[in-house]
Amino acid sequence: MLGAKNEICLFERTEKADDNREYSSVKDAIADRVSLITVDGYLRILGTSESVYEDAAGFSALYKEIFKEERPVIAYDVFGGLFAAKKGIPGGKICY
Q1: Ramachandran region of residue 14, left (φ > 0), alpha (ψ -120 to 50) or beta?
Q2: What residue spans of 38-90 are helical by DSSP H?
């Protein structure tokens, strides 16, 4: 990602992750290793953080509280778009 033409900012977590852990998905690796990734200043890919606006689990819980619907939100953009992993879909399809 860091070699992409887009401006990518990676904010690592303050707690160190286990370097020997194997991940079943990119989403799991991001959540375990970073607090937030921004793309071109308008897309935020959520990781694990104390801030609800940077934490995938916290943002998903906030979404559920507001919309009374459970969605695993993994990113959002400045235009108000939410990106969520679709449950039960092999390959981790992302819905906007």
Answers
A1: alpha
A2: 56-67
Sign of CA dihedral 6, 79, 82, 45: positive
For 12-68, the pLDDT digits (tens) are 777 766 667 787 777 777 777 788 889 888 899 998 888 888 898 999 999 999 989
CB burial readout 28-39, b (16+ within 10 A) else e: eebbebbbbbbb
Q: What pTM does this model have? A: 0.74
Q: For 23, phi and psi rounded to 5 degrees?
A: -110, 145
Residues written for the chain: 96
Closest C-alpha among 60, 65, 33, 61 to residue 47 = 33
